[in-house]
Amino acid sequence: MKRLRAQLSADPRVLTSLPLEIDPDEVLRFQGYKKSGEPPGPDVRALFDEALALGRRLIDPRAVLRWLPVTARGADTIEAGGVLLTIPDVGRLWGPVDWIAAAVCTIGDGLENRVAELWTARELPLAAMLDSVGSGAVESLAEHVNDLLCQETIALGLPVTNRVSPGYGRWDVSDQRALFALCGGQAIGVRLNEACFMTPVKSISLLAAAGAGARVDHYFSQCARCWMAGCAYRRTPAGGTVRHS
Ligand code: SF4
Q1: Ligand 1 pocket, residue 228 CB under 6 Å
Q2: Could you give the angle at the alpha carbon of 65 between the alpha carbons of 192 and 104, nearest 5°?
Q3: Nearest CA to ligand 1 atom 2
Q4: Tens of pLDDT along 102-131?
Q5: Which residue's CA lies nearest to atom 8 of ligand 1?
Q6: What is the tens place of the pLDDT at every residue in 6-63?
Q7: What does the alpha-carbon distance between residue 31 and residue 20 come to, in Å, rounded to a whole number?
Q8: Atom 7 of ligand 1 has which residue's CA nearest to it?
Q9: Which element (helix H / strand E) includes 32?
Q10: What are the domain boundaries of the chain?
Q11: What is the atom index within ligand 1 of the atom nearest the CA of 151?
């Protein structure tokens, strides 16, 4: 544990200029296209290309993240940094974790402002596709951060769990306040309103955990989209990437 404490900083870190890839399949999934279903036609493809090019110019991916030692664990709770998080079934799903990482990611508000302009101008198909590009981009960003967390601890023998976010599954969205108490989004321009929704809208807050006995990949494999070439701990081949080369 001493070696890990020396290498993991509890200070919040801000990451900017992240080399983010946007997964076309993810964007089209937000548009209602499934891999197993009818593929998009040429007009949709052309719209996608236009929105992707526009989106790449408008996104400004950044993240703030922080590691904290776990001070107490329960069946549905984790405590760290003096903050109690209530996550249903976390004890079973994550196992005996020793550290948590809290993070907030955003692509900024440039893309959503352009979407609003397009709606006003009644350019609805492009507005909807650009919005999906933004959703795909912020999902890739959250994956990117999850991969980064794994790379920081895996060589120390501490696997990292998959990420969870307040408001997803059975984790109540009101715990967003607790997550922000651990790692606030202000440093990257992300604010929380009374209803616990974030601004800019294309933002994701997340929590992951690490520990020698941590349970990983209980619903999908983190490695499947990780860009880390030659990782000795890789569990499955990379099927895609969230990093722009
Ligand atoms: S390849 Fe898998 S084990 Fe290796 S750093 Fe990436 S996510 Fe972690």
Answers
A1: yes
A2: 30
A3: 223
A4: 999 999 999 999 999 999 999 999 999 999
A5: 150
A6: 567 788 999 998 888 888 888 888 888 877 778 888 999 999 999 999 999 999 999 9
A7: 20
A8: 223
A9: none
A10: 2-225
A11: 5
Please indicate whether residue 151, judged by its CB atom, sits closer than 6 Å to ligand 1.
yes
Q: Which two tokens stand for residue 50?
A: 């236009």
* Residue whose CB lies within 8 A of the most ligand 1 atoms, among 223, 225, 227, 242, for a mutation test: 223
pTM: 0.90
Tokens (6 digits) for 182: 């651990």
The chain-wide mean pLDDT, for the chain, equals: 90
| Cβ of 158 less than 6 Å from ligand 1 | no
Say yes or no: CB of residue 226 within 6 Å of ligand 1: yes
Nearby residues of 28 by Cβ (< 8 Å), 6 or more positions away: 40, 44, 48, 132
The answer on pLDDT for 237 being more than 90 is no
Q: Is the CB of 222 under 6 A from ligand 1?
A: yes
The whole-angstrom separation of Cα 192 and Cα 227 is 31
Considering the four listed CATH numbers 3.40.50.150, 3.40.47.10, 3.30.70.890, 3.40.109.40, the one that applies to the domain covering 2-225 is 3.40.109.40
Cα separation, 34 vs 19, in Å, equals 26
Does residue 206 contact residue 125 with C-beta atoms inside 8 Å?
A: no
pLDDT value of residue 12? 92
pLDDT value for 131: 96
CA atoms within 13 A on the CB side of 25: 9
Q: Token pair of 93, please? A: 């799903």
- List pLDDT tens digits, range 188-213: 999 999 999 999 999 999 999 999 99
Burial 26-59 (b: 16+ CB within 10 A, else e): bbbbbbebeeeeeebeeeeeebbeebbebbeebb
pLDDT of 195: 94
